[in-house]
Amino acid sequence: MISWIAARKGRMETLTAEMIEAIALEFQSMPGDILKSYRDPPGRKPNERLLCLRDSIACIDDETLEALIRDVVDAAVFQMVYLMGASFKSGLDLAVNRGDERESLKGAVLHEDYRAHINPGGLPVKTA
Question: How far apart, in whole angstroms, are the C-alpha atoms of residue 65 and residue 69?
């Protein structure tokens, strides 16, 4: 996948743009990892909840189940980045920091930046 930041040539890279890109990249492996833990719960004595889930989803094919997981994860991540940009609707002043750099998230449209990477339903945006 071509870097979304690189695709925005001419615009300065920002900490929030880097944060959203990192979230989008992490998102890509999450549904598959979750599916794997549902199909084969980890540990010598797996969590009872995971064993119950494993048994409940036994008749669902991997493609359908991964699409469902991808959709749920996407909805949760989208809502979280929206709330971060909206200061959790409570007037909090959230910021991204690296060294001496600080960038406020107040008023940031993080959910739109996230959608520039990830389509509704969790599939990555195709870039040229």
Answer: 6
Q: By the 8 A CB rule, do 104 and 110 touch?
A: no
Q: Which residues of 31-52 are buried (b: 16+ CB within 10 A; e: fewer)?
A: beebbebbeebeeeeeeeebee
Torsion angle, alpha carbons of 77, 70, 24, 10, to 10: -110
pLDDT confidence band for 128 (50 / 70 / 90): low
Sequence-separated (6 or more) residues with CB below 8 Å from residue 19: 96
User: pLDDT tens across 70-94, in order?
Assistant: 999 999 999 999 999 999 989 888 9
Residue ranges covered by each domain of the chain: 14-117
How far from 26 is each of 46, 52, 53, CA to CA, in Å? 25, 27, 24
At residue 81, what are phi and psi to the nearest 5 degrees?
-70, -30
Q: Which residue type is seen at 10?
A: G
